[in-house]
Amino acid sequence: MENHEEAPAPVPGPKARRVLVASVAGCAAVLGAVLALLPWERTATRAPAPAPGEQARAAVAAGVPAALPDLAVLIGEREARVRAHPRDARSWAVLGMAYAEQGRRTADPAYYPRAEAALRTSLRVRVKGNTEALGGLAALANARRDFPAARKWAEAARKLAPGRWTVYPPLIDACAGLGDHKAAGRALERLMELRSGPDVMARAAAVYWDRGWREDAAAQLADAAAAAEAPAERAAYLERAGQLAWERGDPADALRHFQEAVRLDPDQRAAQAGQGRALAALGRTTEALNAYRVALAKQPSPQYALELGELYESLGLGQAAGVQYDLLRARVRGAAAGGADEELVLGRFEADHGDPRAAVRRLRAEWARQPGTAVADALGWALHRAGQHREALRFATLATDEAKGGGVRSAPYAYHRGVIERALERYGPARRHLQEALRINPYFSPVHARAARAALAELGEPSVMDVPVMDAKR
Questions:
Q1: 78's torsion region: left (phi>0), alpha (psi -120 to 50) or beta?
Q2: Which of 53, 125, 299, 467 could form a disulfide with 107 if both were Cys (CB 3.0 to 4.6 A apart)?
Q3: Rounded to whole angstroms, how far apart are CA atoms 131 and 303?
Q4: Domain that holds residue 439
C-alpha cells in the first residue's frame, strides 16, 4: 500500500495577506496590554529543524532543489541503508533520486548511471505500486534531456497513482521538453488541484513563460521565492527569476536576483553564470569573466562554456575562446558517456563556430526524437548557416509563431528568424523581427546583438515597398 502525502493548506494570496496583517495589527495593542498583566511564562520552544539528510530526502521526493551538502549526507545515509537492507525498495528509490539531483546540480553525468541502477533495483525489489522509482526514472530522464523516456516513466507513475501530486512535476517538464505545451498545461492544472505551495508556483511560472505570459511567470516566481523556507530552494527560484529578468532585457534586475541566489546558496552555479551574463551586459567585463570561471570550476556545463567562449570572442580573444570550445566538446562527450543528451548545445556551437552541416545532421536527429521549441530554433539556424534558407524559415517560424507553438518571447529566436528572412530578401519581416529581438533584450548575445544592430543599419528605414497596399473600396 502506498502512502499518499497530504497537500498543505493553500498559501494566501497577496491581497489576503494584507487583510490578515491589517486585522492582526488592529488587535496588537490590546493583546500587548493583556499580556503585560499576565504572569511571565516561558514560551514554547520551536521544533528543531529537520536533519540535513531528512531535508534533502523531502526535497528530492518533491522534485525541488536540495543543498549539495545535504544531498551528500542523504546519499551516505541511503548507501549505508541499502547495504544493510538490500530489499528496501524505498531507500533504493530515494538513493537513485539523490544521485540524479547530484548529477544535475554538479553537471557531472557520472552520477546518472548510478541513479539509474539504484532506481531499477528499486523496481526489481518492488514491482507493483512503486511510484517513487517510476517518478525517479522520469526525473532522471529529464535531467539527461531524454524527454520521450521521461514522459513514458511519468505517464506510468500517473496511471498508477493519479491522485499523487509528485507524479506531475516530471510530467510537466517532459511535455514542455517535447514541445507539447497543451499537455504540460493540463498536467499543471491537475497538480494545482492537488497541491499548493512554492514548488507549484515555480512549475506554473515555467509553463506561463513558455506561453509568453511573462508578467504572470514573474509574479509566480516572486511568490515562490518569498514562500520557500529552505535556502537552496529559495535560491533556485531567485535564479529563475533572474533568468526571466535577463530574458526581458533588464540585466541590473537580473544581477540582483542572481547575487541574492548565490548569497543564499553558494553552490547555485546557474546563478553564478547568470551573474556573468548580466555583468557583461552592464559593461563590467572583468567581473563577468570571473563569474563565468567560478561557475565552470564547480559546474562545467557545456552551455556555460559556450557563453564564456562567445564572450571571449566578442573581446577579440580567439585563443581563450578556443579553450572554452574544447571544454564544451569534452563535456558533451562526457555527458554522452553518462547517458545525457547535449546535442542541442553542441548543434548550436557547430552552427556558429564549427561545421554547420554537421549541426544540421545532429539537430535533424534531435528534432525527430524530441521536437521541442528550442530544437526547432536551433535546427532553423543551423539550416540557415548551411545555406538552406527556405527550410530554415519553416523551423524558425515554428519556434516564434504562437499559433505553431512558439509562444515564448525570445530575443535569440526572433534574431534568428530575422536573419533568415533577410537572406530570403523578405526585408520587411526581417526588419520587424530584428527590431523585436533588440526590443525584447538588447543584450541577448555579445556576438549576435551586435550583428542584429549592424543588420538593421544595413536594412535602413522601411521603404514604400514594405507598406501593405490598402484597398480604398473597403
A1: alpha
A2: 299
A3: 32
A4: 376-462
